[in-house]
Amino acid sequence: MSEAASTLFEVIAVAPHGALQTERLRASNERQASEQVQLRGLRVLSCRALAGGGGERKAWRGFMRARLDVGLFTDELAALLDAGLGMVDTLRTLAQKERETRSREALEAVTRDITEGLPLSRAFSNRSEFFPPLLVASIAASEQTGDLVSALRRYSTHLETMRLLRGKLVGAAVYPALLLGVGALVVFFLLGVVVPRFSVLLEGSKHELPLASSILLSWGKQVASHPLLFAGGFVAVVVGIVVGLIRAARSGWQIPGLQRAWLIGSLVRLFRHAQFYRTCAMLVQGGIPVLRAFEMSRRLLAEEDQQQLDIARRQISEGRPIGPALSQAGIADTVSLRMLEVAQRTGRLADVLGRIAAFQEAALGRAIDMAARLVEPALMILIGLVIGAIVVLMYMPIFDLATSLQ
């Protein structure tokens, strides 16, 4: 079998004498990889495809991933536990296969805590930099019900849903961002390189220039006279934009006024509300009280919505129904209000929260498609007008000079 036509699989299996083994082999599919291991007398616990098979690819991926992949970890933890492996052996197996040093040490520390008698939720909470509070809370609730495997799979499904939702929003923003970036570079090149050279060539011209062309050429003269100053300013602007984006990403894009921005504000708010309802559905389904779920999920909302949610939580704790409280806070629309009212009568709150999230995710997808159809042509027209105006204003003095020579 050629290497190009096969995939590298990692198989965790148990030998006849009870020892755990991790095998890496190439096969055309997961079933064939499992059969190759079973032919050697091993019992397969899990089998997963690895992205890329070369050593350089693995080393690069290990370098890029500085922290534990929580989604993959919960998938593997649930698979091994469901296969009948004990908690300590499962954690040791996952620690052995972990390539990143800090993640491996964290899993080894969790294993020591478990052997000393600590519950899994407590061991995870002691390493909060690796294990998110939502995962810890889900495991803590499952420890009371004995449904740990289902809780891990719910959390893994939740992470995948959130990843797809973020990917949809980011993917829609990539093309407009590229348009703006390329258009800005072209404009900066024209204003910083081409216009200064034109201004030097036309400096001795005695012909009266149009006002707009005069302003543009004056700018070119200033850039030609102080190139280092303007180059430093350009670098400072680029660095400022990069630093601002990094800080915004680390703060969860909690940018004041972002939800009130034209066109994208409504999309951002809908995205945050879908995240909020999806997370609350996962927590409530895992056995966490709804008020506690609201408190844990509040950081997914914008700051103004967080304040309104706190008011709604106080009202709910005082006995007000969930639907009217969230509706007054602006977090539930009319459809969500009716669904929450039905949920309180039937007791199926987790299902209703999940359905509200699904409706909002569908609405977000439609809104993103509509916004993309409007924004992309508008940006192309705007960039074309700006670049065309600069070029025309540069060449107008040359046209006037050619007319005078005739």
Rg over CA atoms: 29 Å
Looking at this structure, what is the CATH superfamily of the largest domain?
A: Type II secretion system (T2SS), domain F
Unreliable runs: 1-5, 52-66
Helix content: over 70%
Q: Biggest sheet, in brief?
A: 3 strands, antiparallel
Give me the CATH architecture of the largest domain, please. Answer: Up-down Bundle
Strand content: 5-15%
Total number of domains: 2
- Enumerate how many helices there are, as a single number: 16
Report strand order across the widest sheet: 2-1-3
Structural class: mainly alpha
The best one-word shape is extended
Order of helices and strands: EEHEHHHHHHHHHHHHHHH
Q: Can you give the mean pLDDT? A: 79
State the distance separating the first and last CA atoms.
Answer: 76 Å
Give the class-level CATH name of the largest domain.
Answer: Mainly Alpha
Oligomer: single chain
The CATH topology annotation of the largest domain reads as Receptor-associated Protein
Number of strands: 3
